[in-house]
Fold each of these.
Amino acid sequence: MAALTKHIHTHFFQPLFASFNFQSRSYRSPTRISSTLSFRNSDSHFIEALKLVDEFDPEIPLEKAVTPPSSWYTDPSFFALELDRVFHRGWQAVGYVEQLKDPHDFFTGRLGNVEYVVCKDNNKKVRAFHNVCRHHASLLASGCGKKSCFVCPYHGWTYGLDGGLLKATRINGIQNFDVNDFGLVPLPVATWGPFVLLNLDEKLSSELVVDEDEVAHEWLGSCADLLSLNGVDASLSFVCRREYTIECNWKVFCDNYLDGGYHVPYAHKGLASNLKLESYSTEIFEAVSIQSCKGGGESKGDDYGRLGPEALYAFVYPNFMINRYGPWMDTNLVLPLGPRKCLVVFDYFLETPFKNDESFIQQSLEDSESVQIEDIILCEGVQKGLESPAYKFGRYAPSVENAMHHFHRLLHLNLTK
């Protein structure tokens, strides 16, 4: 991996048993019934949660600031507000481009109450849709793989990879039915480097023409080029995925990631022995923070083992982490499952010269797994402490926890918009 660029500046803010086939149709996005597709709530649903938002003051300097109250991590109404204001607005990382290498490739996912499917159509265009049949709301697809079309497992309604309705079974006698109004509901989708992004904001037009340069600016701000220069790109080979269901609020995992290496010497002694923790530094951008640390292991020529000469840890608000070290890149996607539960998806990528070194890969994954287990224990312990009546709020360690403070300030900004 290229050495981390230095001197980074800070930036803020048919008839019976027959089907109707619709192969020849001019598909358009649904318009007449769009009001039924809304998942955005009005402020009246969030009166109590908005009171909790005001318990954190983002304008207090880091040295004097207190952390958000424990209610931000435990209250169900606050969690609902986050889904609406944080996750259902803006660009979100949902996968990687290698999942869509060929036409007919697809993958599915869920974020809050939004089920989605992303695919590459016959013309090699990446598309995304709500993963919901327009007949009686069954989920259309699950997992990932290849499909030439999406066939509803409930009643057999069939959709093309462009979202158009191709076949509606047993609807003889139906009236006031326009096939063009019953295609899959599209979502804006984009790619940046090795990643696939979605935007769940219902205020965006379903006909949005995505400018990927503009998306990169919205998602990464002024550090997009910096990440590319430091090896965050599509040249890496996918190795594997690991998933962890953790009994903690999604922000607990993010806070743990953003403490500037504070917990590393206490909780990750094996990892700490391979890092020069005194070199740890953090740089803040608009919606990204980048932590970096030099490798501390004994080197033999250019061989620094798994971590390499320098490790880079990029947090992309609100819930995506990119870790670049040695020949490796792994990403952590934190998906909220409830006020006290989250799913963390780890995807591992490797530089091409190392992809056949099975021994190196196995040992690296085992070392990474050990760190993840240690973090899970920490995060679940923190969640229990947050639910204790003894804890209301905490303080920041100013020399190391500026990225965490930045994260909380961005949250407050989103939640009050």
Amino acid sequence: MASLQLHLLPLSTGPCLPSSRFRRSLVRSSTERQALFNRIAPVYDNLNDLLSLGQHRIWKRMAVSWSGAKKGDSVLDLCCGSGDLAFLLSEKVGSSGKVIGLDFSKEQLSVASSRQKLMSKAFYTNIEWVEGDAIDLPFSDGHFDAITMGYGLRNVVDKHKAMQEMYRVSKAGSRVSILDFNKSTNPVIAFTQELMIDNVVVPVASGFGLAEDYKYLKSSIREFLTGKEMEELALDVGFSNARYYEIGGSLMGNLVATR
């Protein structure tokens, strides 16, 4: 069984709008969560590798592949964190393409920028890091050929608005690929997730002094959307097609939506 990773990637800092079937109550305020993500930035990558036994790299490659990004494309990685998906996208689009990594955490972006400078591959210079809000993207309509989001939608204050923004800034025919924990309707899978969080994730995080921060993971998964609800959300904002894939032994999931 695959191990779990935290991936507390950034969320919107915008206000919580009136509830709908696609929004859930907050377990932390935006300010608190932003501070949390800034605080874990220095150990973020090490913990992800440790907690997932490195498997998160496989899942991220799958997400990027599903995005359909290709040479010369202009692409966006939302809630980019320390930049894993952005670097994979950079390899896909090449030196003739452009990658924007957007995040609301300055510390995470600083880590991503530092990693970029240490990389030896020339085309990684095609990445630009932008501090911004997932529900108010600073880009024009129909700007991107592909969009990815890894472990971010679960933490966005207004998921419906975030999906609307992804729809708005994507080109006709392009794809959005969203990777996150799978909120399974299977009680065995749900129980396994909680068991591993309590007995693997939190104890390991304790070694980094982050036990209380990582306890947030369980509630964020409980309040997330199921695969069917993810598909409905994408279709609701205008995407022509949406399909949700369970991966990682059904512990993870990836939504692929076509504009």
Amino acid sequence: MKATLKYLAGIAGPSGYGSKTTAEQVTQVCSVSFTSQLTAIITGATSGIGAETARVLARRGVRLVIPARDLKKAAILKEAIKKQSPWADIILLEIDLSSFASIQRFCAQFLSLGLPLHILINNAGKFSQKLEFSEDKFELSFATNYLGHFLLTEMLLDKMVETAEQTGIEGRIVNVSSVVHNWVKRDKFCFSQMLNPKNYNGTRAYAQSKLANILHAKELSRQLKARNANVAINAVHPGIVKTGITRDHKGFITDSLYFMASKLLKSTSQGSASTCYVALNPQTRGVSGKYFADCNECHCSDLANDEIEARKLWKHTRALIHRRSFPGITIFS
């Protein structure tokens, strides 16, 4: 109850920020002379909190690489950002995060540009009401939200580590998760069932993928620390935001409940604040393997904190990718 009241009132936490804080506010402390050196990749940037994250980072001088399935929508976003920030450096490349082959093509294109990579924001999210499969024959929400981001991160990780070594600037990876990861029960978190569920429930599938995002951050953080790599990875809950994916959740939110809940929903600027805070704010330097909400480190579920479960998920995912025999992937043991 106390936490709920704190959220509703927008009371600041230890970071000095809270639920009402905007992405603009958390990046005001960032020096333009510093941020203008940075290059960031943001998935799911053509709408919602991804678009706001892109707008704010561009305003701070960060070079943006925007992977998009719909390049027309991406071009519209680019035009809108450049109207506000004419100096913005924005590169658009095609990707379908549910397709391993498409992710490979994107990474090859990006790496061929010879650019550094300081920030990777795994923001794109898919909620599917009915059972659908990716072209690789995996359940679509899990394929997009988790498998796609896992593969993308792995293929770009060496570039991030190299950039950090060459520039002395900490690399930062942000996995956008959700508080709904708490809904997942241990006996329902089975890798093979998430790939090809027998009894499909859209909300459960989405929650499972968001739990996997946190476990990914926990395990990769452990591995990066073991390598003494100057790259951090964290997971964030953006809050319940007025975006298209929220409206897609009619499996558990009726129209009337949505109307009432909408009075408590965050704006996209508030929803993107935690992402921007973890990606750019000086206060999060050196912080890795954590879970943030309302721009403050907070507790995630016991299952999300389970190091054995995180390692097991990593191994299953690595084995799956290896079976597909994709070249150019470096996966750390």
